[in-house]
Design a protein that fits this description.
By secondary structure, this protein is of the alpha/beta class. Helices cover about 45% and strands about 10% of the residues. An eight-stranded mixed β-sheet has the order 1-2-4-3-5-8-9-10, sandwiched between helices. The chain has a five-stranded parallel β-sheet with strand order 12-13-14-11-15, with helices on both faces. Helix 6 links the parallel strand 8 and strand 9. It is globular and about 90 Å long.
């Protein structure tokens, strides 16, 4: 690894935090870059129809609800349009930006699915009537107000007498009082059964966001939410806040602010952070004020901003909605990863599954078993099949997986087991692992308890039966050696009072980081090395895997293609198992899986002889098949650079912004034409290009969800990450640092 790559590797650990760091409104920089995100999705816009009181009504596409949009440009008297009225003044400058922003905001709200009631130049009566209708309506979700803001009904009164929690929307008649108090709108809305959002573009608008009586209401019970243009004591300028809101709404309609497709609504913190960054990018000095939330608790799902990327999936919804003790398991198990692996033409390993499943079902015995093998030999798929067939939470959420596995091999599935826990240890430390095991085994939980290994062993020894623990990807943990020495070996060696082993422990790991654990399991006959399975068995499993893959492809599925499918699958399986030394370096199942993806992108052979010839060309290594697939793609070098960037992700992955920041490092110099590729594009164009590449490379990716709902990307296999970290640049190009 050259010096430049080593330096980048050190920096990459910090990049994820840099691009998704927590938002602190009180300290937010006011002159930063424009926040731009894009991903292909949009909502169409319908026309508008006449309304009442100078209003017009637009019909949104998805029936999300209604927005009341009120804006005032003209007042009875005006001063310099650039000046703010001084306290005590009764004349209000004209707000020349209102008309244009009313039109843009109306379209933007429609694009995210709302009906829009647009009320221009309302007088006091109209403001009162429309606001009262909105805050008591079951269909109005958002109230957006643009005008001057008056802190009290009588500006000649002292601040103490006027009150610090009142802010009035100045109507076109410049007479305000009962009915124009935005803070009172918020109080009234909180009493309603459905939540309402107030987007307040007034001077001193922050007063409506920080009402003392509402700060004491738990987030989950709050029905009035506020995004205010500025603080309780500062002015707002030139409609910049509403301009930023319109820009973010347009981004939501286009790509949902990169929110994960598993989440129905774009989350509160994601939206408010985007508005502030957009405001910064417009050159505004304003700092928005919003409803305060308890950052230590999970925010409720707020139905204000529909995610256009949302894909209903009842199975994933069930996994996300399980009870808290099981929810921790779902996160640790990385259930989507396991389900994809098991469901993607998982076949074979029958003898290994039967050996493991019978042992995991026997609660009278304990001990240690370890599954190892080369990268891509099928360790995670094997363990995933056992977990998905035996863990009660996964069975409840995705019973089809157990049914599929049972149909293949009923002896190879575990029985449902309330004492089966599972940990996927990628990026995890010992504290999080201990806490999750305790939850899954339903051990006595005390608030804020810090679990130790000794505590865990003590509590487990009191259980009536020997529990089981499946522990995958030990080599990918934050500190594999610490987990092995401090937790896994003590668990494996601990005994119950009757002399039986404390637990049944099944571990998946590579050889190079787990020598003592492998030796311990080998001494007791519990080591399963997938590279040492008889070649004939591996070849048969590979053939079945390829047949299932080819049968699912339209251009291979016709009856007359049956001989072609059979010949191609047989040839690929034979080629990948003919040299044992290569199988020990790169698992043949991973290579076969990627080669199947290559075959999906090309025409089927037109004869058995052609199928045999094509099968003989299968690369024998992960690097070979990966480079073959990528080289056949449009934008191949940029796609490779994006995958290389994702290879450096930690934990659950990189967000899109971080991928866009890292990937140009690995793009070739020749792709640096202005406006083109990773090197030539900037800003929103770069992000849009990266999103297209992430979509094109989706076969190689797994997604997670950040705490703010944004999608995270990582490679589906650690072997891919290992290879691309060492070889991030195209093999036929010179790294940037060396070229210069």
């Amino acid at each position: 690894m050259n010096a430049s790559l080593r330096s980048f590797h050190r920096r990459s650990v910090a990049m994820r935090q840099r691009y998704i760091g927590s938002y602190r409104p009180a300290r937010q920089c006011r002159d930063g870059r424009r926040f731009t995100l894009a991903l292909e999705a949009s909502c169409s816009v319908r026309g508008t129809a006449s309304g009442r009181d100078g209003a017009h009504v637009g019909t949104g596409e998805s029936g999300t609800g209604q927005v009341l949009l009120m804006g005032v440009e003209q007042f009875p008297t005006t001063t310099d349009p650039q000046a703010e009225p001084e306290p005590g003044r009764t004349d209000w400058p004209r707000l020349t930006f209102v008309t244009g922003l009313m039109s843009r905001l109306g379209l933007a709200y429609k694009r995210v699915g709302y009906d829009v009631l647009s009320v221009a130049e309302p007088d006091r009566r109209a403001v009162t009537l429309h606001s009262d209708d909105a805050v008591t309506s079951s269909t109005t979700r958002i109230v957006h107000a643009m005008s001057h803001g008056a802190p009290a009904a009588d500006l000649n009164r002292s601040p103490a007498a006027a009150g610090q929690e009142h802010i009035h929307m100045v109507p076109s008649c410049a007479t305000f009082g009962t009915g124009t108090d935005v803070s009172q709108w918020v109080r009234t809305a909180h009493q309603q059964p459905e939540p309402t959002l107030f987007v307040v573009d007034l001077c001193r608008a922050g007063r409506a966001a920080r009402l003392s009586e509402l700060t004491r209401v738990p987030d989950g019970e709050l029905n009035a939410w506020v995004i205010a243009a500025t603080s309780p004591d500062l002015p707002a300028y030139d409609g910049r806040f509403s301009e930023a809101v319109a820009e973010v709404l347009e981004q939501i309609s286009d790509h949902g602010l990169d929110t994960s497709p598993s989440i129905r609504f774009v989350r509160w913190d994601r939206v408010t952070r985007a508005i502030q960054r957009s405001l910064d990018g417009l050159g505004s000095r304003q700092v928005i004020h919003t409803t305060r939330v308890d950052v230590s608790q999970e925010l409720p799902e707020l139905p204000f901003f529909p995610n256009p990327r949302w894909r209903p999936d009842s199975r994933l919804e069930k996994l996300n909605d399980v009870a808290p003790p099981v929810r921790a398991f779902v996160a640790d198990l990385d259930a989507e990863h396991f389900m994809d692996r098991v469901g993607d033409h998982f076949v074979g390993r029958q003898s290994q599954l039967e050996w493991m499943a019978g042992w995991l079902d026997d609660d009278r015995v304990g001990g240690l078993r370890v599954v190892t093998g080369a990268p891509g030999s099928g360790k995670s798929a094997l363990l995933g099949a056992l977990v998905c067939s035996g863990h009660e939470a996964v069975i409840d959420a995705a019973p089809d997986i157990r049914a599929y596995l049972t149909a293949q091999n009923p002896e190879g599935v575990c029985s449902p087991n309330p004492l089966l826990a599972a940990i996927h240890s990628r990026g995890r430390d010992i504290d999080s692992v201990l806490a999750s095991i305790a939850l899954q085994w339903k051990l006595p939980i005390e608030p804020e308890r810090h679990w130790t290994v000794a505590d865990l062993i003590s509590e487990v020894s009191t259980l009536p039966a020997v529990p089981a623990l499946v522990f995958d990807a030990l080599d990918e943990a934050e500190d594999p050696d610490d987990l092995m020495k401090s937790l896994l070996i003590p668990l494996a060696e601990a005994l119950r009072a009757d002399g039986r082993s404390l637990v049944r422990l099944l571990v998946g790991t590579r050889r190079w980081r787990s020598g003592p654990l492998l030796a311990l399991s080998d001494r007791h006959g519990g080591l399963l090395d997938l590279d040492n399975v008889p070649v004939e068995e591996i070849r048969s499993d590979l053939r079945r895997h390829m047949l299932r893959r080819l049968s699912s492809l339209p251009h291979y599925s016709a009856p007359e293609q049956r001989p072609v499918r059979a010949a191609l699958a047989e040839t690929v399986a034979a080629a990948l198992t003919e040299k044992a030394e290569l199988m020990h370096e790169w698992g043949p199942f991973l290579v076969a899986r990627i080669f199947g993806h290559v075959l999906a992108t090309e025409s089927a052979p037109d004869s058995v002889d052609a199928a045999v010839a094509r099968g003989r060309t299968v690369p024998r290594s992960l690097p070979g098949v990966l480079e073959l697939d990528i080289d056949n793609r449009p934008d191949s070098k940029d796609l490779r650079a994006v995958l290389a960037a994702v290879a450096f992700a930690k934990g659950d992955g990189f967000p899109t912004e971080a991928v866009a920041a890292v990937a140009p490092e690995f793009a070739p110099e020749e792709a640096a034409a202005p406006g083109r590729g990773l090197r030539g594009a900037t800003g929103q164009e770069l992000l849009q290009h990266v999103r297209g590449l992430l979509d094109a490379g989706s076969f190689y990716l797994r997604t997670g969800v950040e705490t703010d709902g944004s999608a995270l990307y990582r490679l589906f296999h650690q072997g891919l990450a290992d290879y691309l970290q060492v070889h991030p640049y195209p093999l036929d190009s010179t790294p940037r640092s060396e070229a210069t």
